[in-house]
Amino acid sequence: MIGMNGYQFYWSIVWDSLPLLLAGAWVTIQITILAFIIGTLIAMPMAVARQQGEGWAYRFSTWWVELSRNTPAVFQLYLFYFGLGAFHINIPSYAAVLISVSFNNAGYMTEIFRGGLNAIPRQQLSASRSLGMTSPQSFIHVIFPQMFKVIFLAYVTQGIWGMLNTSFGMLVGLQELSGATQYAQSASFRTFEFFLVTALIYYLIAKGLQFSSHLAFRLIYRS
Amino acid sequence: MQFQFANQGLAWSDAYFLAQGLLNTVRLAAAATLVGTLAGIVLGWLRTVSMTVRIATAPFIDILRSVPMIIQLILANSLLSILGFGTSPFWFGTVALGAWMSAVTAEVVRASLLSVPVQYRKSARSLGMNGYQELLYISMPLAFRTGLAPWIGLVLSLIKDSALAGVVGYIEYMRSTQILITRTHETWLLLMGAGLFYFLICYPVSRYSRHLERKVRV
Amino acid sequence: MIRISNVQKAFGSVIVLKGIDLTVEKGELVCLIGASGSGKSTLLQCINGLEPIQGGEILVDGISVHDPKTDINKLRSKLGIVFQQYNAFPHLTALENVALAPRVVSKRSRAVARALAQKHLEHVGLGDKGDSLPSQLSGGQQQRLAIARALAMEPSYMLFDEVTSALDPELVGEVLETMRLLKSEGMTMVVVTHDINFARESADRVAFLCQGEVCEIGTAEEVIDNPRKEQTQKFLRRENRKPLEIVRSSVA
Predict the structure, then answer these.
(1) What is the predicted ipTM?
(2) CATH number of the domain bearing residue A102
(3) Which residue from A minimizes the CA distance to B196?
(4) How many cross-chain Cβ pairs, B to C, lie less than 8 Å apart?
(5) Are strands C63-64 and C29-33 parallel, antiparallel or unpaired?
(6) Which helix (H) or strand (E) segment is B17 a member of?
């Protein structure tokens, strides 16, 4: 315990609540990974649509991209949580966070993917089409594997951004890491100690995600 | 809700309340941008020239980028309160957002300075300029051109992140929207207003930044 | 006078200069020739202190370049240098490129610096290009701009580091023309070049560098037309076998 301005730091209460925090961290990791996968699956076709430059699919994905990138992520969460609630569609806070982070991920990833697609020579597509592959087959087997290699760093960064955004769960009563911390500290008012430990856990999760994605990259691309 | 004024509709005075929230958002974003950018330029430059500074500040930058803004705001609030450095939510918000801004700006500044081709710097030195003159007249203007677009992107992120300052009791636009939603239940109208407010600021700026980026690349 | 004595230079464990001795007299044009990797460009950058040296000494008008007590920035304004890559500052117009150093290094007023810059732009034939950005100029014009920029510091010496090797063949002539003009005005010049023809026509003396040493030095007639050393003969044979265009475009 170190005294500062008469304030006594008090850590043992945080250790007592550690199981609660770790349970929250597990929720954070779940949502992060799910939103990463959902965002990716939505962003792949949207990136292709954005490349077309016209048609309803282009307009739809352009709207998605601009809305997700030009409004606060917390606004997007409120939109799904309070907004749907106003129509008496009450979705659990877990789903609201998952949907809004996926929405946000998909918008940013679309632009990342589009940049990656632009870096791949056009002939790659015509070459695979000439082998008799359908357009989706060409993208899945030829174009996307090359694209992910190009955009890997930005893609992982977005995944970590998504993780940071799950912390808004605290604002809608979800007991992910931030929400669980908020709940645990409310009885003791040891805000600083609790959130410092939480910050550390977030840091470790971010590093873990970074490390495992680099590992995955090496395994997949053998480089 | 058991209060007598629950479900009370929107009143004209609420427009004033929202306008204050709007002003608060602008104030906070402007202050944090100013503080963070100035600190970030100095930090970024120091990180370019000094190995020691680079190693010493690496954790600072890494941590600020890997911890959610909500947590940073709460920590700034509680730490500054413990240390007795004021109690104003505006100040807490400025410190947290400014610290984040300084870290990410430093990285942009460093990358931009490193992107200045060495031959320009050599030429400048060969004309008799000293290191500071070279930095001021050659490296900084050239780095400015590469760094401007990414920096604008950071300002946009900061404006959007300022929507979280409500957690430390700062009534910016998002928070005032939320307060009115709780009171009036005019959820969609108010949410649309908030969405529009941020969109109208961010969309044109991000378009401009993308335009700049293309221009620099050519 | 530039006096280079026993200069040694290494990049890590790679020894580039093994003890160079060379003197450049006032008003003289000395060409340094030699294969790539012979250390001639490195030597040039050592002369104005852009590269540190590990041994020996370089004296410019009696002042030691690598002495830590020397005000290197002041000394550098005596030594203009033009590099291989055109490196006009891309954010400044041609006039501003030339006016910058007189203003910030020599502390001239803005108006004086601009007038000076205009004078030197006219000197290299770019009098009407003052408002152009480097990106709007051809490679040859950019190199002449770089020459004007160096001249604006009113140097006593001009160093040229393979200035035509990055140029398209048809643009080489105008740059060499500008260099001949300077020579005719009595400028002291050290020119690193692959252009044997330029060396033969213009150089007072030619130094052939080989493996970090001055292998042969003398007048153009002596070194180029009647080389005595075997390495020099070999080098010149190789250069002559190149078709004219390649020699031209890889001047330096």
Answers:
(1) 0.90
(2) 1.10.3720.10
(3) A71
(4) 60
(5) unpaired
(6) helix B12-49
Q: How far apart are CA C156 and CA C77, in angstroms?
A: 9
Looking at the domain assignment, is residue C62 inside a domain? yes
Q: Find residue C160's DSSP bridge partners.
A: C82, C191
Cβ <8 Å between C153 and B137: no
pLDDT value at position A164? 96
As a whole number of angstroms, the distance between CA A202 and CA A210 comes to 12
C105–B126 C-beta distance less than 8 A = no
pLDDT in tens, C96-145: 999 999 999 889 999 999 999 999 999 999 999 999 999 999 999 999 99
Give the structural domain span for C81.
2-196+205-230
The answer to whether B115 touches B139, Cβ cutoff 8 Å, is no
Distance from CA of B149 to the nearest CA of A (A): 15
- What CATH number is attached to the domain comprising C217? 3.40.50.300
3-state secondary structure C187-239: CEEEEECCCHHHHHHHCCEEEEEECCEEEEEECHHHHHHCCCCHHHHHHHHHH
pLDDT digits (tens, 9 = 90+) for B57-100: 999 999 999 999 999 999 999 999 888 887 799 999 999 999 99
- For residue A31, being part of any structural domain is answered with yes
Distances (CA, A) of C116 to B123, C119, C123: 19, 5, 11
Q: Note whether B28 contacts C: Cβ–Cβ < 8 A.
A: no
**CA A100, CA A80: separation in Å to the nearest integer?**
7
Closest CA to B97 of B75, B129, B123, B114: B75
Structure token digits, residue B166: 């409500």
Residue numbers of the domain that contains A109? 27-221
Say whether residue B66 is in contact with chain C using an 8 A CB cutoff: no
pLDDT higher than 70, residue C248: no
* Cα of A134 to nearest chain B Cα, Å: 33
Query: Which residues of chain A are within 8 Å of residue B199 when distances are taken between CB atoms?
Result: 66-67, 70-71
Quick check: is C226 in a domain? yes
Of B62, B28, B37, B71, nearest in space to B171 by CA: B28
Question: Which of residues 149 through 188 in chain A touch B, CB cutoff 8 A?
Answer: 160, 164-165, 167-168, 170-171, 178
- The hierarchical CATH code for the domain B12-217 is 1.10.3720.10
pLDDT at A1: 43
What is the length of chain C?
252
Please check whether residue C164 is in contact with residue C195, taking contact to mean a CB–CB distance below 8 angstroms: yes
Instruction: Please answer yes or no on whether C87 and B123 come within 8 Å at the CB atom.
Output: yes
- Closest chain A residue to B162 measured between Cα atoms? A72
Contacts of C87 in chain B (CB under 8 A): 117, 119-120, 122-123
Please give the pLDDT value at position C252. Answer: 44
Structure tokens at C249: 């475009």
Where b means 16+ CB within 10 Å and e means fewer, A44-59 reads: bebbbbbeeeeeeebe
| C204: alpha, beta or left? (left if phi > 0; alpha if psi -120 to 50) | alpha
pLDDT in tens, C136-186: 999 999 999 999 999 999 999 999 999 988 888 888 999 999 999 999 999
